[in-house]
Amino acid sequence: MKKKLAILLWAANEDRPELCATPFVQAMAACALDCEVEIHFTGRATRLLIAGVADRLYPTDNGNKSIYVFMKEAAYMGAEFIACGMALGTHTQAGETFVPEYSGNATATEFTLRALDPEWATLIF
Asked: What share of the chain is helix, strand, coil (3-state, %, to 5)?
């Protein structure tokens, strides 16, 4: 069984909050199975890393658990949050603050290397 999982967030972004909880639930499941987990944010999904954005997003209409709560739970279990530097430059503004769970940047090549590495499994949302 593989013990490393890289998750790419692309379509799961602030415009589609109904898609945003599942990647973090999958990350928590992998962490519970003692996997190393990286969540790569790209495109508009990088907006989820801006403080306050995921706090106001809910995956369902009942609004009882924000996307940020899912994010914090995944990070608490060990998932690392990584952003595409190019996407950050496009989708964030100077002076915006990142959530404390944000770990740093990676390139598209780094996620592609994960996908090509037989030790890693990948999921794309």
From this structure: 40, 25, 35
Residues 6+ apart with CB under 8 A from 28: 73, 74, 77, 79
Q: How confident is the model at residue 61 (pLDDT cuts 50, 70, 90)?
A: confident
In the beta sheet, which residues pair with residue 13?
Answer: none
Which domains does the chain carry?
4-124 (3.40.1260.10)
User: In angstroms, how far is CA 123 from the centroid of its own chain?
Assistant: 11
pLDDT digits (tens, 9 = 90+) for 87-101: 999 999 999 999 999
CA dihedral 56, 59, 62, 66 (to 10 degrees): -40
In 3D, which of 27, 3, 32, 20 has the Cα closest to residue 121?
3
Over residues 2-52, the pLDDT tens digits come to: 999 999 999 999 999 999 999 999 999 999 999 999 999 999 999 999 999
